[in-house]
């Protein structure tokens, strides 16, 4: 048996990591780890993390992954285009959570 009766699997989240060129946010692998830990803390299973660097790249991949996966949330870190992500969240009924850092 795969789980206890009445157990509910964790909902899915997609990570969005803005990789800054100044390096003050740590390495991309540290950012990915922070997003994964925060997604778990918020109660989500992290499906994938998309890096957005330079600003504007990667956002189409985020929306495609959201629409195909049926994700429930976005966990974001760094300086991201919040207007665009909020529009995607509205279209797909997602929760947007901010990762630490």
Mind explaining what this structure looks like?
With 101 residues, the protein is α/β, with parallel strands linked by helices. The chain is built from three helices and four strands. It has a four-stranded parallel sheet with strand order 2-1-3-4, sandwiched between helices. Helix 1 links the parallel strand 1 and strand 2. Helix 2 packs parallel to helix 3. The longest helix has 15 residues. The N and C termini lie far apart (39 Å). The mean pLDDT is 85.
Brief description of this entry?
This protein is of the alpha/beta class and 101 residues long.
SSE topology:
Elements lengths: L11 E7 L9 H15 L2 E8 L6 H11 L3 E5 L4 H11 L2 E4 L3
Parallel strand pairs: 1-2, 1-3, 3-4
Helix pairs in contact: 2-3
Features:
101 residues; 3 helices; 4 strands
What structural category do the secondary elements indicate? Answer: alpha/beta
Using the CA coordinates, give the radius of gyration: 14 Å
The count of β-strands is 4
* First-to-last CA distance: 39 Å
- Beta-strand content estimate: 15-25%
Series of secondary-structure elements, N-terminal to C-terminal: EHEHEHE
Strand order of the largest sheet: 2-1-3-4
Poorly predicted regions? none
Helix content: 25-40%
Arithmetic mean pLDDT: 85
Shape: globular
Discrete helix count: 3
Largest sheet: 4 strands, parallel
